[in-house]
Design a protein that fits this description.
single chain, alpha/beta, TIM Barrel, eight-stranded parallel β-barrel, 18 helices, 40% helix
């Protein structure tokens, strides 16, 4: 089976995405996971005196003792009219002691003359000199032909000369880059094939996603012989992002029958995708192919019925191959079969004919008619199900709460919540402040329950969303509040609906605590 080498640039290109700013610790954590997944190359960053994080990454990365991946340092060719040994950028690259160095050079004559302000001949010397110099200081040099496709379209002869210069310098790989990301797939294939006829050095591809074709362009190059693909986890990157390795890797492995990380490692893909989103402090895109929560979710009644009868009827692969799982979404399109299938994932031996199941289905449809949705609130659904089937015992009884909001002059608003709960006959009445009424309620309920359930200290809210259901009602509109919570290991979502935003928030918060306390109790019993 032919091998395709995967080059991950999440720590450099991905870090250039809007809203992403990885610390040194973040980079090291992600690097360890990338290595565990089986990436062949991990590009750590662009080391230079103005970027201390990337400068520090390389000595720190050696302490990780990676098992498989090779660390790559990234930079540019030398500056015009400077010898390679005197160029500060190349010096920083060699000082990293990285086994692999990747440099980019200008393939587009526009960039050589208008951006670098140099001659076309000098640009060729810069490429060849820099590659030859770096080959003396590391095991492997990868040459990224920046803006190659755009350069080829405007001046094919000169663009090819830049590749020849890199080859003369001794590049181990020549990577064709669609830096502006505007290339369509048919044109990408045509240009790649022309280059392949003339260049003997192994070819790779590096594509951005500005035209929405990054994955398709990467794959068409692989189909035509590229054996090196660069990209990022979840497609993070400048502007519209880079080619998404979470799509490319399983497509190469499962659809093209070529080897990347191997089928066993591929099962870690979704966990890796989620992990990078978590470390980067980004909401995970549920609609990502292969790794998104929605990738194997089924909502339409006909779709669900088909999957229940024959998985292949509505799924292109087995979700477990990429570490994902099949889910059935409850909606007004769902039927009894959907409920039973969903229940069976956490309550075995459910009988579709059980009158309690029918009652549960009616209750869920009534709740959805009132504004509830359970797509992102699996924990709320499970609580309702356990209660309907008589399998739930309340960990505490809620007696009441009061929230005080006070605003005086220019000072920040003051929020305080008092709450009363009962646990096994013992009543707890307490108060807490917070940054707003919901936070005050959250603090108060935790404070009240912590003496009974110390584990609550580990629970925390990670996301809070308010959606207006019937906006035309103005301030009297019903709102749906979605809460995402975690204990550091598991993540669960809950929902509440009301005309009162505080009550909707409270219902979602109450579900969050009840659900996790119930699961912890069940785990202890098992």
């Amino acid at each position: 089976m032919s091998k395709v080498f995967i080059y991950d640039t999440t720590l450099r290109d991905g870090n250039q995405a809007r809203g992403v700013s990885l610390s040194l610790d973040d980079k090291l954590l992600i690097a360890r996971r990338l290595d565990d997944f089986g990436m062949d190359y991990i590009e750590g960053g662009w080391p230079n005196p103005t970027n201390q994080t990337d400068m520090q990454f390389y000595p720190e990365s050696r302490k990780l003792k990676l098992k498989h991946a090779r660390i790559a340092a990234f930079g540019s060719t030398r500056r015009p009219k400077i010898k390679p040994g005197e160029d500060p950028g190349l010096k920083c690259l060699t000082e990293t002691r990285a086994p692999v160095i990747t440099i980019f050079g200008k393939s587009w004559d526009l960039h050589a003359t208008n951006i670098l302000k140099t001659t076309l001949d000098e640009n060729l010397r810069m490429i060849e000199d820099s590659v030859r110099f770096l080959k003396q200081h590391c095991d492997e040099v990868i040459y990224d032909a920046e803006h190659f496709f755009d350069g080829y379209k405007e001046n094919a002869a000169y663009a090819m000369k830049t590749l020849e210069a890199a080859a003369e310098g001794g590049a181990d790989w020549i990577v064709l880059c669609d830096t502006n990301g505007g290339l369509l797939t048919r044109e990408c294939e045509q240009i790649f094939l022309k280059v392949q006829e003339l260049v003997q050095v192994p070819l790779g591809v590096h594509v951005h996603n500005d035209a929405g074709c990054a994955e398709a362009n990467s794959l068409i190059c692989v189909a035509n012989g590229a054996r090196h693909v660069q990209g990022t986890i979840n497609g993070l990157g400048e502007r519209c992002g880079n080619a998404n390795l979470c799509t490319i890797v399983p497509d190469i492995e499962l659809k093209m029958n070529l080897k990347t990380v191997g089928r066993a490692k591929l099962k870690k893909l979704r966990d890796l995708s989620l992990y990078v989103s978590e470390i980067a402090n980004l909401h995970h895109n549920e609609r990502l192919p292969f790794v998104g929560e929605a990738a194997f979710s089924h909502k339409g009644g006909a779709h669900i019925d088909g999957v229940l009868k024959e998985r292949r009827s509505f799924e292109h692969i087995d979700p477990s191959l990429v570490g994902n799982e099949r889910t059935y979404i409850l909606s007004d399109q769902a039927g009894g079969s959907t409920i039973v299938e969903k229940l069976s994932t956490f309550i075995p031996d459910v009988d579709k004919k059980d009158p309690r199941v029918k009652a549960l289905l009616k209750k869920l449809k009534d709740m959805e008619a009132g504004g509830y949705q359970f797509e992102a609130a699996e924990a709320s659904f499970r609580l309702i199900a356990y209660k309907a089937l008589g399998l739930y015992k309340e960990p505490f009884m809620f007696r009441g709460f009061r929230v005080i909001e006070e605003k005086r002059g220019e000072k920040n608003p003051y929020s305080e919540a008092t709450i009363q709960v009962e646990v096994d006959g013992t009543v707890e009445h307490t108060a807490a402040e917070g940054d707003g009424p919901v936070n005050a309620l959250d603090n108060a309920i935790r404070k009240a329950l912590s003496r009974f359930y110390p584990r609550i200290a580990d629970f925390r809210l990670t996301d809070y969303k308010v959606l207006v259901i019937n906006a035309r009602m103005g301030t009297a509109a019903r709102v749906r509040v979605l809460i995402e919570s975690t204990d550091g290991q598991d993540i669960w979502g809950t929902v509440g609906v009301s005309e009162n935003v505080i009550e909707a928030s409270w219902l979602a918060l109450l579900d969050s605590l009840n659900y996790k306390l119930m699961i912890d109790q069940k785990n202890r019993k098992s």
